[in-house]
Amino acid sequence: MTLLELLDYASVFVFALTGALVASRAQLDIVGFAFVAALTATGGGTVRDVILDRNPVFWVAEPGFIAVAVAASAVVFFSAHLLESRLRVLTWLDALALAVAVPAGTGVAMTLGHGAAVVLLMGVATGCLGGLMRDVVCNEVPLVLKQGELYVTAAFAGAAAALVAAQVMPQGAALLVCAAVTLVLRAGSLLFGWQLPVYRSRPPRR
Amino acid sequence: MTLLELLDYASVFVFALTGALVASRAQLDIVGFAFVAALTATGGGTVRDVILDRNPVFWVAEPGFIAVAVAASAVVFFSAHLLESRLRVLTWLDALALAVAVPAGTGVAMTLGHGAAVVLLMGVATGCLGGLMRDVVCNEVPLVLKQGELYVTAAFAGAAAALVAAQVMPQGAALLVCAAVTLVLRAGSLLFGWQLPVYRSRPPRR
Amino acid sequence: MTLLELLDYASVFVFALTGALVASRAQLDIVGFAFVAALTATGGGTVRDVILDRNPVFWVAEPGFIAVAVAASAVVFFSAHLLESRLRVLTWLDALALAVAVPAGTGVAMTLGHGAAVVLLMGVATGCLGGLMRDVVCNEVPLVLKQGELYVTAAFAGAAAALVAAQVMPQGAALLVCAAVTLVLRAGSLLFGWQLPVYRSRPPRR
Questions:
Q1: B-chain residue closest to C50, CA distance
Q2: Which residues of chain A form beta strands (DSSP E)?
Q3: Which pLDDT tens digit goes with each residue over C130-173?
C-alpha cells in the first residue's frame, strides 16, 4: 500500500467515525449511521478526484474504503453511549481526520504534477468538504466555519508546509510535515484558543 | 427505449413532482418550481454519472429528461392547490421516486460491470441524493434522514436484492425486484411504522 | 484573453466579493473569507465543467482565477466595515455576478455545440449554483430562492435571449445581450418589485 492510499484509508476511517457520531446526535438507525459516515468519509476525496479527473474515483477503484467506513459506523453505533461527551470526541476525531485528509489531497495533486495553487486548494478541499457535507446534511453548525477557531487555516497552512517541505525532502516526508502542521494548529486552536483576528463590522473605538 | 432509460425517465418525472411540491411550500414562482424540480430530478443521477465517469451525463445526452421535469413542475404549479395535504402527497411520491431511482442507479452500475460494493452505493446514492439536495436547498428537514423511518435502508435493501436476484434471473427482472423491495419497505415504514432500532444515547435501564 | 475567459474572471471576482461579504456576516477570519469566497466564485463554473466533462476544470487550467478570488476576499476583509449596509451591497454585487456568470455558462455550452436545453440549463446552473452553495453553507436564506423576486427567471431569460440572439449575430454579441437581459430583469426586480405570480396554496376567493 502506498502512503497516499494509507492517508486515504486513515481519512475515510476517522471521518466515518465523525459522521457516525453526528448520526448518533440525530438518532438515526444503523443504516443511517453508515450513510452519513460514508458521505462524510468519501465526500472530500470524491470532489478531489472528480475535479482532477482522476479515474476511477478512489473508492470506486478500491471498495475496501466503503467497508472501512461501514465498519467505523458500526463501531460507533454500538459504543457511542459509552462516551462521556460525544461532541468533544467528535471535535477531536474531526481534527485528526483533517490532519490526514489534507495530506491525502495535497499528495494526490502533487503526484499529478499540479502547480502550487491547485495543490493548496485540493489540500483544503479534501480536508474540509467531507465534514462540511456532514454538517450541512445533518443540520449542524459546520465545524469548518466555526467562528474564532483555526480550521480552514490549519488545512491551508498544512498544505503550504507540504509545498515548502517538498523542495527539500521526499514527498512522503513532506506529507508527514503537512499532517503535523495541520494537527498542531487545529489542536492548538482547540486547546489554547489560538485564532486569527476575525472580522468585526466596526473597528474598535479608542 | 431501454429499461434503464425508462427507469431514469420515471425517476425524473416523479422526483420532479416532489421538487415542485416543495417549491409550492416555499411559494416560489413557476420558474422557481422548474428549478427545484430539475435539481431534485437530476441530482442523484448526475452524481451517479459523474462518479462513474459516464459521459455524457444522462440529461445532457437526452434533453427530453429536462422537458419531463419542466412539464412535471407545471402540472404541480397549476394543480397543487387541489390537494388535501401536500405533505402527504409529497411523502408518497417521494417513496415512489425512490423505488424507481434505486434500480436506475443499481442498473447503471451493474451494466458498467462494477462490483457489489459500488453497485450498492450507486443504488443508494442515485435514490437518495436528489431528494437530499431538494430538502437542503429548500431548508426542509430531509426526508432521507428522518428519524424512525426506513429510507436509506429501503434503498440499500432494494439494491442488495437486485444483486442477489441478478444471480438467478436476467438483469431487467432483477431491477423490478429491486423496485418492489424498495417500495414495499418504504411504504411499510410509512403505513405500519416499520423501522430499525434507532440509536439511543443511553441503553434502556432495567 | 477570450470573451469566455473574461466572463469567467468577472464572475469569479464579483461572486468572490459576495462570498466574502457573507463571511463577514458570519465573522470569520481572513482565511475563512477566502474559503467562502473561493467556494462561491468557483462553485457554479465547476459544476458546469464537471457536467460537460470539460477538462481541466477552468480554475485548475488557470490558477489566476484563485488569485482573483483571494484578492477579492482580502479587499472585503479590510473594507467591509466602511459600508453602510452590507446586505444591500451583497444583493447588488450578487445581481452583477449573476449577469456575468449566466453568459459564462451559456457561452461554454454553446461553444461545445450543445443543444438549446443544455445551453439553457448550463446558463442557469453556472449563474445560480455558486450563490446557492454560499448561502447553504453559511446558513443564509438563499437569495436564489427568495420569494417574490426574479432570480432563476432572470438567469433563464438571459440564457434564452442568448440562444435567440445567436441566430442573428455573432456569439460574442449574443452573450452581451444575455448579460444585459439578466441584469435588467434582476435589477428591475430589486428596484421596482418586478415578479412572476407566485404559487398560492388556495386560489383567491371572489
A1: B50
A2: none
A3: 999 999 999 999 999 998 899 999 999 999 999 999 999 999 99
In a domain, C123, yes or no: yes
Torsional class of B126: left (φ above 0), alpha (ψ -120 to 50), beta (otherwise): alpha
Nearest to B99 by CA among B192, B145, B161: B161
Grid cell listed for B42: 437530476
**Overall number of domains in chain B:** 1
Instruction: Please answer whether residues A117 and A147 qualify as being in contact, where contact means their C-beta atoms are separated by less than 8 angstroms.
Output: no
Q: Does B136 touch chain C (CB under 8 A)?
A: yes
Domain range for B155 is: 3-192
Please judge whether B199 and A77 are an interchain contact, meaning their C-beta atoms are less than 8 angstroms apart. Answer: yes
- Domain presence at residue B101: yes
Q: Note the pLDDT of residue B198.
A: 86
| Alpha helices per DSSP H over chain C | 3-25, 30-51, 58-61, 64-79, 86-111, 116-137, 152-165, 171-192
Distance in angstroms (rounded) separating the CA atoms of residues A106 and A8? 11
The x, y and z cell numbers of residue B57, run together, are 451525463
In a domain, C130, yes or no: yes
Q: Which pLDDT tens digit goes with each residue over A78-127?
A: 999 888 888 999 999 999 999 999 999 999 999 999 999 999 999 999 99
Do C196 and B29 lie within an 8 Å CB cutoff? yes
Dist. CA A136–CA C97, nearest whole Å: 25
Asked if the C-beta of B192 comes within 8 angstroms of chain A's C-beta atoms, the answer is: no
Contact A137 B141 (CB under 8 A): no
What is the ipTM, given to two decimal places? 0.93
The fraction of chain C above a pLDDT of 70, given in percent, is: 97
- A131 within domain boundaries: yes
